[in-house]
């Protein structure tokens, strides 16, 4: 810890020396007054410098804030323009997608019906082809029978004709 005497012996700033001098003795000499004025002038000068720097920093901050606000405003405008450009396309795409979905819903039962009818058609075609084969078989059998019957009749007619020819002679 420092004592009061040590504090007085240490070199001090003019402001502190003046205070001590005023407190210590009722008379302020010219030198002390000069030191206190110069200290006060130095203090004011430093305060002015600090104030000037503060104003410079404030101005720079204001400029940067202004630039940031301008950039934010421009970005907002660009975003709005982009949304305006994409919005009509989104609506059209959405409407077309909804229409495609509706058509898909309509196509599903139609596709199932088509498959069912194709199956029925194949079955009917198979049945038709079988009946057609059966018919062809019966027609060929009929042709055979008719041909055989004609042969038999022709042979009988020939025999009868020969029998008539023999009896007529």
Can you characterise this structure?
It is a single chain. This protein is mainly alpha-helical and 169 residues long. It is built from 3 helices and no strands. It starts with a helix and ends with a helix. 1% of the residues are buried. Mean pLDDT is 83; it is low at 1-11 and 13-21.
Itemize the secondary structure elements and their pairings:
Elements: H1 4-9, H2 14-24, H3 30-168
Sheet bearing the most strands, described? Answer: none
Report the sheet-strand fraction: under 5%
* Total count of strands: 0
Query: How would the global form be characterised?
Result: rod-shaped
Which class best fits the helix and strand makeup? Answer: mainly alpha
Poorly predicted sequence stretches spanning 5 or more consecutive residues:
1-11, 13-21
Amino-to-carboxy terminus distance: 183 Å
**pLDDT average, as an integer?**
83
How many DSSP helices?
3
Rounded to an integer in angstroms, the radius of gyration calculated over CA atoms is 63 Å
Helicity level, as a percent range? over 70%
Q: What is the succession of H and E elements? A: HHH
């Amino acid at each position: 810890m420092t004592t009061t005497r040590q504090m007085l012996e240490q070199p001090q700033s003019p402001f502190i020396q003046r205070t001590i001098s005023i407190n210590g003795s009722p008379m302020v000499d010219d030198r002390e007054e000069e030191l206190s004025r110069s200290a006060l002038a130095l203090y004011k000068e430093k305060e002015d410098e600090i104030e000037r720097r503060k104003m410079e920093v404030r101005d720079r901050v204001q400029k940067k804030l202004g630039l940031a606000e301008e950039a934010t405003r421009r970005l907002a405008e660009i975003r709005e323009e982009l949304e305006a450009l994409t919005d009509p396309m989104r609506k059209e795409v959405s409407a077309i997608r909804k229409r495609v979905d509706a058509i898909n819903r309509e196509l599903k039962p139609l596709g199932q019906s088509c498959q069912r009818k194709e199956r029925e058609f194949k079955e009917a075609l198979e049945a038709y082809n079988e009946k057609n084969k059966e018919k062809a078989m019966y027609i060929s059998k009929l042709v055979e029978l008719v041909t055989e019957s004609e042969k038999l009749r022709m042979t009988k007619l020939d025999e009868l004709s020969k029998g008539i020819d023999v009896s007529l002679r």
